[in-house]
Design goal:
Strands 1-3-2 form a three-stranded antiparallel β-sheet, covered by helices on one side. A hairpin with a 6-residue loop joins strand 4 and strand 5. Helices cover 38% and strands 14% of the residues. It is α+β, with helices and mostly antiparallel strands. It contains four helices and five strands, in the order E-H-E-H-E-H-E-E-H.
Length: 119
């Protein structure tokens, strides 16, 4: 077996394991037991939780893991400004925490303000 990913924590390792298995690659997590004694041992790639696959699957698993993390970065939401109160809101939220205005309301207002769309 070969290591294809070193995780920051056990849940991340199991997320990657599940992702690989959903794509037809059998994987195992190793090193999760050492996570509980962080501070008592140095934190290194060899003591962190990691995901391992059969040697025959290394190339495909590595590609899948790289694609997984690339997609995660590409799908990060862009922050937006509330049209009602002007508060800056992180992209994953759909409503303003300050006044409750929906991000969709922001988009509707922007499109109704667009002079090119006048008929």
């Amino acid at each position: 077996m070969k290591q294809v990913h070193v995780a920051q924590n056990p849940p991340e390792a199991y997320l990657i394991k599940g992702f690989l298995e959903a794509n037809g690659i059998k994987a195992v997590v190793q090193g999760e037991d050492l996570f509980g004694i962080r501070g008592g041992i140095p934190v290194t790639p060899s003591t962190s939780p990691s995901v391992w696959v059969a040697e025959a699957d290394v190339a495909e698993a590595t590609r899948l893991v790289e694609d997984f993390f690339r997609a995660e970065v590409e799908h990060q939401e862009v922050s937006w400004r509330c049209a009602n109160c002007g508060e800056m809101i992180e992209g994953q939220f759909t409503e303003c925490w300050n006044c409750g205005t929906s991000r969709d309301a922001d988009l509707l207002q922007e499109s109704s303000d667009d002079p090119d769309e006048s008929a």
